[in-house]
Amino acid sequence: MSLQVFSYDELSSKGLIPLNANIRRCNTLQKIGLTFDSMKISEIELEELSKSLKQQRFLKSLFLEFRDDDAVSYEGGIYFGHFLKTLHCLQHLSLIFERSSIISGRGWLYLRQGLQKLTTLKYLWLDFYSLMLRDDESLEEIGSALAKLAALEFLSLGFYNNAAVCNQGVICLGEGLKSLISLKNLSINLAYGNRIKEYGFFSLSISLQNLSNLENLVLNTSSCNYFTDNVLVHLSNSILSLSNLQELTLYIHQCEKITTIGIKNFRKSLRQHLSLKRILIY
User: What is the dihedral of CA 254, 205, 263, 228, to 10 degrees?
Assistant: First the structure.
């Protein structure tokens, strides 16, 4: 079957078997978009989907969205890793968990191994809402993967409402970001429920200094108790080093240790930036 685009919204478990059959019949697919709505996927089903996707050697764009709680099984990341490392032409990848899901330690390892093989990737959107994880086996693995993706131009990371996310994970994430010299758009969502301390935010701010081609930065730290006036000072110093930055959006809603004076000084310091055209603070 000759087909370049395959899209399926609100997929149910009844549609998973014919879905795999249809994907396997198409060996010229360049774009696949799948939304799994109100369904839990067993390990066997994930394995079969993985086998189907591994055959798509010409795939350039992949969008997978999971809308149900615990939609992906405990070892789910293993199967993602298996098929990702075979997609050598992939340029766009979106992997979205809208509700809480579980990925184990081995799952994060395989997911990292799959991601770091995608050396042609230009667009990456990873969204993990309330994911059940331990900090040392999640952001550390993702940070390691990012370090290999030098071609990335767009990166969106969502780790909001994750109580396990703390300093060490953010530091590892920052180390990975330092390698993304082609990055033009960066969005990081760390809002609500994490355990990141002031030092973690210092480290993340400093890592931004390497992103010399960055044009747009979105940072959401709403309800982060240790995002302070001192962090704003470090962040402003990093932003001033980004000569190509044009837009900055900062969400600091309910950050109790941010003061009006701190925000005023932050805005004042950024007036020195010659290319920054737009600053939004919420």
Answer: 50
